Amino acid sequence: MSKPVEKQEWFRVAEAFEASGLTQVEFARQRGVRLSTLQSWVYRRRRHLAAKAEPVRLLPVQVTPPVEPSTTFVELVAEGGARLRFAVGTDVGYVARLLAALGR
Predict the structure, then answer these.
(1) How far apart are the C-alpha atoms of 95 and 101, rounded to whole Å?
(2) Beta strand extents in the chain (DSSP E only)
């Protein structure tokens, strides 16, 4: 088991590696540490940070069956020149929100 001081020290080394932009091999060579030791502490630090991270929130979704292909479309051209093609019967509110978002 690692001593607390040693653990904090290695976490700082792992943090320095993450910020360095170097590969693990390059960083280990520059610091004069064994590659396997660096890899182990980088893994431990990442696992430690992941455990402290806020849990992922999942949002409910509703899956609807695909709409039958339609050969009739409505095409809109936004001010910026984007062309949007929608099947006849597409929710008008959705189209309005999409156009508003494109206009921003």
Answers:
(1) 10
(2) 73-77, 83-87
| Per-residue pLDDT reduced to its tens digit, 37-66 | 999 999 999 999 888 888 878 878 787 877
* Residue recorded with tokens 């696992």: 47
**pTM tops 0.90:** no
Q: How far apart are CA 16 and CA 10, in angstroms?
A: 10
Q: State the chain's maximal CA–CA distance in angstroms.
A: 71
The phi and psi torsions of 79 (rounded to 5 degrees) equal -55, -35
Please name the residues in contact with 75: beta carbons below 8 A apart, sequence gap of 6 or more.
Answer: 83, 84, 85, 86
What are φ and ψ of residue 44, in 5° steps?
-60, -40
Q: Find tokens 């030791």 and name the residue.
A: 37
